[in-house]
């Protein structure tokens, strides 16, 4: 029994250590001195001719596949840029990539390890992690690109949200459906949304449209862990909905589309951009999704960027390509333009980069993501969205439109 | 009426899956007095293994192997951990299962990523319609399988020597041991059965109307907990009834959320726990649980 006890203690200890995970904290050299590099002022995050940008991504947690796509696209973009024009004609960009496992505590710890050596953050994935780092980013004058579109993220001047916020997104989606005759004025629309900011943002959009076009919204709030949408769809059917709006994750989208087909509820489904993943087209709901789902997205599809697709698959073979690649490339292009502007202003210090970011009112990324306006704090950086539809193409979706701005959006963003 | 019947049928089919999981909890608790907090990871492991193997060896062999592999994990945990620590405080063993759960889920989540693995059930997303009421074939088979498995289990429980041994061990462990019943073996078989049932539940949980294997599946195990507890943790029959009650209550509360708006949105999520608390207030040992008597 003695041995048993000892073994037990040892095992419990092993379990706890393994469960808490190990993290390595990279302490890079402190480089905060401001030196004059020709005409351009530099500071933290630039050593010699190298700019270091931080990447806090998720390579092992719930958003691992998306995190990998976005991060790989950053790598591809900067490799190409470093071999070509460089930033400011002389600086190459190096990425300090760290995996947060989608854990805010891990994110904060990793950031404190890299903060003395990065000029800005090329990516911070996940609303909880962004929220946890808000104060630190503010204190360190960090320009950060979060691949998330919650309104609260736009409150921080340093955040360069890569597209329209969720409320604008759904407004554009519903407006498109209305224009194409998929829904009519006065229709009843069922909206399934996540609790929390993402869902609330989408709901704000559908409620705004309801007021404007006399829709009646039947709400169904769910948790991200709910995977079976049977009861929600039953409720919608009883309420006689003519369309379904979604501000959820791909799991719920597939379930909602599948159940709607089961119950003979053949209506259009309008979703926010995170509702879709190409993996859904391999599942049983594929036919229903291809027929009824349209997605309002700040990001274009990869089949519209064949060159990027080709370069990406050449560098990263054997991976399923998602539109996260387009997002990653677009985020890098936006960062490049911010850095170029700072260079033009002669100030590549973190403060200089922040000033450059807040002065850019029209960032065009060659159609990768919608045009962006970074000047207004607390406002959606864009009023435009692409409308996508699931299809058997690389990335799993085709673009039905170019970036469009519906007439309805104006009242929402005033 | 159609809405009510649809919700009821949905609730029943969901309840049947909960019942399979709760039955696992209950069997394990009865045999080894351990509350297994690792059922979430067992569900996910079962579903993941079946999904991975299906592409290679076909559906039925994949199911057989997946269930066997999951049962194997149950056996391993029982032999390597639970059995060796027999006599340790029950809470230690329960926490130990949490540790194993975290390790398994972390690894499986890493493997799955944000992808949604499709199991490739032969029935896919097909559905059957009974008049105005529709249900997916997957859920229908889930109900049938649950009924068959539970029937088999109760026959085994009543008539097999393992069933008798288990009931004796649960009634009075020490006396049973003195009578020559090998508690270790009873406990090992219980873990195998509990884990196997979790894999079967996992197989149906990740089928239509749920799109596939994603790490979120683990949370379902948490909802089966109230089912087992309100039925009476040491009552296998109670686990089944508890599963059905929770499934139906959850389906009705989510389906009628507009009408139940005064209770707040998302009431369906808390219903399993509300029902559990209400039942425990009236019957502290659950509906069919053994009343604990402590003489002072």
Describe this structure in words.
The complex is a heterodimer of chains A (414) and B (296). Chain A is an alpha/beta fold. Chain A folds into two domains: 209 residues, Response regulator (Rossmann fold, 3-Layer(aba) Sandwich); 158 residues, Response regulator (Rossmann fold). Chain A is built from 13 helices and 13 strands. In chain A, the strands form three sheets. In chain A, strands 8-7-9-10-11-12-13 form a seven-stranded mixed beta sheet, sandwiched between helices. In chain A, strands 3, 4, 5 and 6 form a four-stranded mixed beta sheet that branches. In chain A, helix 2 crosses helix 11, helix 3 runs parallel beside helix 4 and helix 5 packs parallel to helix 6. With 296 residues, chain B is mostly helical. Chain B has one domain. The model of chain B has no long low-confidence stretch (mean pLDDT 87). Chain B has eleven helices and two strands. Helices cover 71% and strands 3% of the residues of chain B. Chain B has a two-stranded antiparallel ribbon. Chain B is globular, with a radius of gyration of 19 Å. Classes of the chains: A alpha/beta (414), B mainly alpha (296). At the A-B interface, helix 1, helix 2, strand 8, helix 7 and helix 8 of A face helix 1, helix 4, strand 2 and helix 10 of B.
